[in-house]
From TrEMBL:
Transmembrane segments: none annotated. One of its GO terms (molecular function) is phosphoribosylglycinamide formyltransferase activity. (6R)-10-formyltetrahydrofolate binds at residues 64, 89-92, 106. The keyword Transferase applies. Keywords: Purine biosynthesis, Transferase. This is Phosphoribosylglycinamide formyltransferase. It comes from Limnobaculum allomyrinae. Belongs to the GART family.
């Protein structure tokens, strides 16, 4: 079974998913890792694990839709059962999102519906939140607004720096993302009628 992962950066969530495939927690293989950023360190991680990498750079396309169509055509060569956004920092257009409806996952570093978009950790800190965390959801046309699958919360401590809080949230990200991917690959998780459906057997 084929998984395609999209990244833009360091790829620590990608690494957690690579490790979970290697240990067979996830029943599937990462067939390719895509990045819109040529320098993304996650590409090095993928190559170190012998995974094919593809860089599709936005500057060669005249519109977001053109880019997303080219991206999707390249992704389809890997016949993915699941597409995982792991720190992919580009907004995907409706043509892309609808093409992969029900097989597109994203991780977002907040307890959605709180703080969609960027700079979630600094917002949690400046608002004096007691809790912060991460959410995994199916991707729909609404930015960071698709059906929620799993969330993990961490405490926000009075002396926290942004970097410290990011780290605490990422520990949880690296735990819950492989878990959700494993559920999906086992056929226990789906999007039905715009909701996350889970077989609890
Ligand atoms: C993660 O915090 C994720 O929640 C956000 O971007 C970050 C990606 O980190 N969307 P990494 O590239 O997986 O290390």
């Amino acid at each position: 079974k084929s998984i395609v992962v999209l990244i833009s950066g360091s790829g620590s969530n990608l690494q957690a998913i690579i490790d979970a495939c290697d240990s067979e927690q996830i029943d599937g293989t990462i067939s390719a890792v895509f990045s819109n950023v040529p320098e993304a360190y996650g590409l090095v991680r993928a190559q170190q694990s012998g995974i094919i990498t593809e860089v599709v750079e936005p500057k060669y396309f005249s519109s977001r839709t053109d880019y997303d169509l080219a991206l999707a055509d390249t992704i389809d060569r890997y016949k993915p059962d699941l597409i995982v956004l792991a720190g992919y920092m580009r907004i995907l257009s409706p043509v892309f999102v609808n093409r992969y409806a029900g097989k597109l996952l994203n991780i977002h570093p907040s307890l959605l519906p709180k703080y969609p978009g960027l700079h979630t950790h600094s917002q949690a800190l400046s608002n004096g939140d007691k809790q912060h965390g991460a959410t995994i959801h199916f991707v729909t046309e609404e930015l960071d607004g698709g059906p929620i699958i799993l969330q993990a919360a961490v405490p926000v401590l009075p002396q926290d720096s942004e970097a410290g809080l990011i780290k605490r949230v990422q520990v949880e990200e690296h735990r819950i993302y492989p878990l959700v991917v494993s559920w999906f690959m086992d056929g226990r998780l789906a999007m039905r009628d715009g909701k996350a459906w889970m077989d609890n057997q």
